[in-house]
C-alpha cells in the first residue's frame, strides 16, 4: 500500500521476454500509451532495432534485458529449469529498478517465467497487471514435445494459474477470448491486430528508391538487362530524360512472405509450390517470372536457406533478407502477392503479417487453420489453401493475367481498398484506453 501511494501515476511498463524489434504489437502498445501522455518503460531484448517512431518518442524509455546464452550444463530438463530460475531473478531485478508504474502490460507468450515475475513486481509496486494473450506458451512448447510431455503439462498449469492473477486481459481473437473463459476462467477483451498507419500502398517513386537500395545487396532486385536511357531495378525504371518512374516492361511478379522461422511455419510447402509453378512455365503456361522474398529472423532460417540453395530454378529467384523496420512496410506496399504459412499452435491466434499485408492492400494466400476465417475471407480478400499443390494452382490462377489489371488479383486488391478497416490507434483507443481510466 505504501508503494502504491508513493507514485506511479501515468506510468506504464510494457514488457516482453523477447526481442522488442520483432514484437510489433508491443511497440504499438507503447506508442499508443505515449500518444496519450503516458510515460512508458518498454522492456525486452534489444537484438534488432525497434521502429524509429519508438526510438524518437520522448515518452518511451527502452529498458534492455540481457538475453541468456550458454546455459548448456547437464541434461536438457536441468538447462530449462536453470534458465527459468535465472530469467526470473534477472527479470524481477530489472522490473524493480524502473520507475514505479501504475500498470504492467505483459505479452504472453513467452509467459514462463514472465507472468509470475510481473505479478510479483506488481505486488511490490501496487501495479495492476494486464496480460496480452497472443497465443498459449504450452501449445508452442508442444510443437517440439508431445501434448502430454511433463514440461507441456507444467506450462499449461502455470499459464492457467498465474493467468488468473491478472487484473485485465487482452487477446487477439474472439475464439481465444472464448477459450480463455471456458478452459481458464479468464475474462478477456478482444483487441484484434490492426495495421499501423505506415502500412499502406507504396507510391511508385518510393518503390523505385527501395528497389534500387535493395538491388545493391540482393541480386533478385537487380535488372536482368541494363538500359542506357533509364535507371532500372528488376521491377521499376526511371527515365533519364523525363525523370518519371514506370513499372519495368516484362517485370517479374513480386511474391513476399514474412516469418519468424519457427516450427509453426512449414516453408517446404511454399518451396514445393514454387517447384510446381516452375513446372507450369516449362509446360508452356504464360506465367511471369517470380521474385520470392522471405523476410525475417529465427532459429530455422539456416535450415531453410540450405533447402533453397539446393533448388535450381530458371524462372524463380528467392532471397531471405532481414529488413529494417521502416523498409518492411514499403516492401509490402510494393508487392503483388503475400503468402502466409503461419499455422497457429493453438488454432486461436491470427498472423499479424497478414494484418500488415491487408493494411497495404496486398492480397494474400494463407494456409488454413481453425480461426483464420476471422481475418482472411476466401475469394474476397485472398485465398486459403491446405497444401502445396493447392497453393501452386492458386499462384497459377492469380498470375495468368499478370500484369493486367482485370484479373482476380486486382479484384482482391480493390476489395481491400474498399473495406477500410480501422487502424491500430482507433481500435486501441476504443478497446484498451477505457481499461486504463484516468492517469493513476
Structure write-up:
With 440 residues, the chain is α/β, with parallel strands linked by helices. The protein has two domains: 12-192 and 424-436, Rossmann fold, CATH 3.40.50; 204-418, 3-Layer(aba) Sandwich (Rossmann fold). 39% of the residues lie in helices and 18% in strands. It has 17 helices and 16 strands. It has helices at residues 2-5, 24-35, 52-56, 76-97, 114-125, 137-141, 150-163, 174-184, 204-215, 268-282, 301-309, 327-332, 352-359, 388-399, 408-419, 424-431, 433-436, and strands at residues 11-19, 39-45, 60-64, 103-108, 128-133, 168-171, 189-190, 230-232, 236-239, 245-247, 253-258, 290-295, 316-319, 337-340, 364-367, 382-385. Strands 3-2-1-4-5-6-7 form a seven-stranded parallel beta sheet, sandwiched between helices. It is globular and about 70 Å long. The protein starts with a helix and ends with a helix. Mean pLDDT is 90; it is low at 1-7.
Structural descriptors:
single chain; 440 residues; alpha/beta; Rossmann fold; seven-stranded parallel β-sheet; six-stranded parallel β-sheet; disordered N terminus
What's the layout of helices and strands?
Elements (H helix, E strand, L loop, with lengths): L1 H4 L5 E9 L4 H12 L3 E7 L6 H5 L3 E5 L11 H22 L5 E6 L5 H12 L2 E6 L3 H5 L8 H14 L4 E4 L2 H11 L4 E2 L13 H12 L14 E3 L3 E4 L5 E3 L5 E6 L9 H15 L7 E6 L5 H9 L6 E4 L7 H6 L4 E4 L11 H8 L4 E4 L14 E4 L2 H12 L8 H12 L4 H8 L1 H4 L4
Parallel strand pairs: 1-2, 1-4, 2-3, 4-5, 5-6, 6-7, 11-12, 11-14, 12-13, 14-15, 15-16
Antiparallel strand pairs: 8-9, 9-10
Helix pairs in contact: 4-5, 10-14
